[in-house]
Amino acid sequence: MSEIGLSPAFLNHAPGFDILSSMLHRLLSISVVFAVSSFALETVQVLTKDGKAIEGPTALGGFTVTVNGSTRKIVLSDVLSVHNGEPASPSEAARIQSGLAAIQSYKAEGVQSEARRNRDAATEDLASIGLPVVTPLLQALKDTDQHEPRALYRLFEKLLPSGADQLDREASLIRLASGELVRGKIESFRFEAGGQKLEWSNTRRLAVRRKTVVRNVELHSLRHSTQIEYLDAAVIVTADSNVKVNAKGIVRLSFDIDGWASDANGLKVPGPNYKTNLVDGFPFGAVVGRVNAAGAGMLVGTDFSGKGLTPGRLYLAVNDNPHWQNNIGAFRISLQATDAYDVGGAQ
Q1: Among candidates 119, 141, 113, which has minimal Cα distance to 229?
Q2: CA–CA separation, 41 and 150 (whole Å)
Q3: What is the pLDDT along the chain (347 residues), one digit of tens a residue?
Q4: Domain range list for the chain
């Protein structure tokens, strides 16, 4: 029997210990963590409050959360990701301030510009911090008739999936494989991951590696144009991941001009009144991707299968030049990644 943190450990996974577990629960103020006994260890990725990522197996079997005054036991194997709602640490607060500033200072410079790279890196970092970003983000937003497709406005959706917002902004968020979203207070507990001793109070996010992560989403030719913002699949791939993407449909890059309509492989010949079918090294209208905000672009097309990708967060976009205002339509994307982490809703 493994015992992690003893805050105290639940022993209810071992036969015959139900009574003992119940007694411990009554004798002690609250039991916040229990350990794995007879089943396989889960592999997790832990993001600490200082931005360090730790990955490896854990004997943690689960933890408890208080929701509206009642405690609930969460089994780790049922979890996609857990996001700590506690206030930002001093280092996180500094990252939030600089990150929001980088997003707000972006003035539609080119995709290869330093300003664009800084904005994308800031968006990725703020999404990884998660819930503590909500209040400063809401305070930064201005009442204007022009939100879409601004990155600052869309950041909110990356922080809080539909149905997860509530008035208590410091409640932690638990995303379950069943689709249920749980908001509540998680008391700090000790655990180990990848051979390192950790505490929940110093953890910002914990994700459980899934055998397969699936996404079925729309990739919009305007909102998810390379010139505007990549779609964040909210999937973290690993060195073991096999990623498959299928893209159906066509998009139009110039409204009524069919010569600028394309499937996900992109234009085969230059569009009307244009000398090349390429922009930034890939065909106009093609589905492209990258791993991590600073990652190199890759052609995804109508069908993609890849192993051995750089570990990190996966993004997709429709390739286009700065004249994106006349784009219309979307691709239907089916994405499957094995041995990966599901850390949010695709946005």
Answers
A1: 119
A2: 42
A3: 333 333 333 333 334 434 444 444 433 434 567 665 555 799 999 999 999 999 999 999 999 999 999 999 999 999 999 999 999 999 999 999 999 999 999 998 999 999 999 999 999 999 999 999 999 999 999 988 666 778 999 999 999 999 999 999 999 999 999 999 999 999 999 999 999 999 999 999 999 999 999 999 999 999 999 999 999 999 999 999 999 999 999 999 999 999 999 999 999 999 999 999 999 999 999 999 999 999 999 999 999 999 999 999 999 999 999 999 999 999 999 999 999 999 999 99
A4: 9-86+170-208, 90-159, 211-342
What architecture (CATH level 2) is domain 211-342? Answer: Sandwich (2.60)
The answer to whether 53 touches 194, Cβ cutoff 8 Å, is no
Q: How many angstroms separate the first and last alpha carbons of the chain?
A: 41
* 3 state SS of 201: helix
* Tokens 């699936």 -> residue: 214
Q: How many CA atoms lie within 13 A of 221 on its CB side?
A: 28
Contact 212, 338 (CB under 8 A): yes
**pTM for this predicted structure:** 0.90
Size (the chain), residues: 347
